[in-house]
Design brief:
242 residues, eight-stranded antiparallel β-sheet, seven-stranded antiparallel β-sheet
Length: 242
């Protein structure tokens, strides 16, 4: 039985580019470096919306969608976050017919530029501007996946960009039919990346810093939605790691 387990772990690592799950460390929150309840327009001053996304506020939540489902969109927090952090937020789906939610993180220009600087090339929500860009690098996780183009995918994906490199796919993210409020937690401990939905681990991968280039460190965090998506968000907080 032992050799079967070893063979499975090696197979998953080599042929699916998935690092076998490591034991969870007791990741402890350090200093609170950013806190935003996303409850009113004043709270998002300085945030940058790329293309036809719209935000509205109701009952202490920030709703985000594209009017008439015009196109995909990304909403960037203006802060630059360190290479190790814990980020938490709450999210709820308001349209279970279709949608896709992504979190971008460690987003930085390839020469260290701030991707929100006005001198940086403009982006319009087109996915390749983030995933196959000649200008920026980032990681991204799709934690809700029910696009009209690929309905009911369920499985969360972690990709490393630039290059749209799929590095981890194993566990489902937010259930595609769920209307519940979900707690999301993203942990980046240098090269190791974990994500949880309601304390259920959906991502656990360690970047070897070689296969797809150096480990990405500091950078911006942004919320992306595909055009059919209507989610609402609140209580976005980012901590250092102890």
């Amino acid at each position: 039985m032992k050799w079967i387990i070893v063979f499975y772990l090696v197979f998953m690592s080599i042929f699916h580019n998935v690092t076998p799950l490591q034991p969870d460390k007791n990741f402890k929150k350090g200093e609170l470096i950013y806190s935003n309840n996303l409850s009113n327009p004043e709270n998002i001053k300085g945030w940058i919306m790329e293309k036809p996304g719209k935000v509205e506020f109701s009952e202490g939540w920030m709703e985000m969608y594209s009017p008439d489902e015009a196109f995909h969109h990304v909403f960037w927090c203006p802060e630059t976050f360190p290479g190790s952090f814990i980020a938490e937020w709450e999210a709820q789906n308001l349209n279970t017919e279709a949608g896709l939610c992504i979190i971008f993180f460690s987003a930085l220009g390839k020469n260290g530029e701030d991707i929100l600087d006005p001198s940086f090339p403009e982006r319009d929500g087109t996915f390749r501007n983030y995933t196959r860009s000649e200008k920026l690098n980032c990681y991204h996780i799709s934690y809700y996946a029910n696009g009209k183009d690929k309905p009911d995918r369920q499985i969360a994906h972690l990709r490393k960009n630039s290059g749209f490199n799929l590095v981890y796919q194993k566990h489902p993210g937010i259930p595609t039919d769920s209307k519940k409020v979900h707690h999301l937690k993203l942990v980046k401990n240098d090269a190791r990346i974990l994500m949880y939905v309601d304390d259920r681990k959906i991502i656990d991968w360690t970047d070897d810093g070689k296969t797809y280039g150096p480990v990405l460190q500091e950078g911006k965090i942004g919320f992306r939605q595909m055009q059919w998506t209507h989610f609402r968000y609140r209580n976005f907080k980012v901590y250092t790691l102890q």
